[in-house]
Design brief:
Blueprint lengths: L1 E3 L3 H10 L2 E11 L11 E2 L1 E16 L2 E16 L6 E13 L11 E14 L2 E18 L2 E12 L8 E15 L1
Antiparallel strand pairs: 1-4, 2-4, 2-10, 3-5, 4-5, 5-6, 6-7, 7-8, 8-9, 9-10
Length: 180
């Protein structure tokens, strides 16, 4: 059962919270857990991105949830061949906070399933496909700045030279002070 803002006051509160922007940077790894085009022939590469959190909050199966959008770039460096794997991703996702308590002073864990599009390329071969990421995020406060570590498992239904692609992205997230 999805329940958007249970009261008018809650809806107004949600809108006053506004949109939040966070950035992340890290490493992309080929996922050797599944047999696919990226599981061999590539080594780790960089990833960088930006996330927009919306003020839309709701309960999903009694779990606090929030809608967001991510745009990020992932790459895998070549091991044997001369061409790397590059991917541009646009993802819509739902942030789930299964252990959230307003009065807690401990760190928060977030689970973020999503769906979106990935435009991947190897040399001149390109493919646009659906992508299905699942993130696990651990939030903490460092030097009075809220930051987090993210592990993302991403499956792309397509690959520039046929088949599918699967990546593991490890990232450091910084919540920016930019809200609107």
């Amino acid at each position: 059962l999805i329940l958007l803002a249970p009261t008018v006051e809650q809806a107004i509160n949600d809108l006053q919270n506004g949109y939040e922007i966070s950035t992340f940077i890290g490493l992309s790894l080929p996922n050797g857990l599944t047999i696919n085009q990226t599981s061999s022939g590539y080594s780790f590469g960089p990833n960088i991105g930006v996330r927009f959190d919306t003020p839309i909050e709701f309960k999903l199966a009694k779990i606090n949830s929030k809608i967001g959008l991510e745009i990020y770039f992932s790459s895998l460096l070549p091991k044997d061949n001369a061409w790397g794997f590059f991917s541009t991703n646009i993802i819509g996702n739902i942030s789930l906070f299964p252990f959230y308590n307003k009065n807690q002073s401990i760190s928060t864990i977030e689970i973020r399933p999503g769906i979106g599009f990935a435009s991947a390329s190897i040399n001149t071969n390109k493919d646009i496909s659906l992508t299905f990421p699942v993130d696990i995020i651990y939030y903490m406060e460092l030097y009075r700045m809220k930051s987090a570590f993210k592990v993302q498992f991403q499956f792309n239904s397509g690959h520039p030279i046929g088949g599918s692609a699967s990546l593991i992205n490890l990232s450091y997230i910084i919540k920016t002070p930019f809200n609107f």
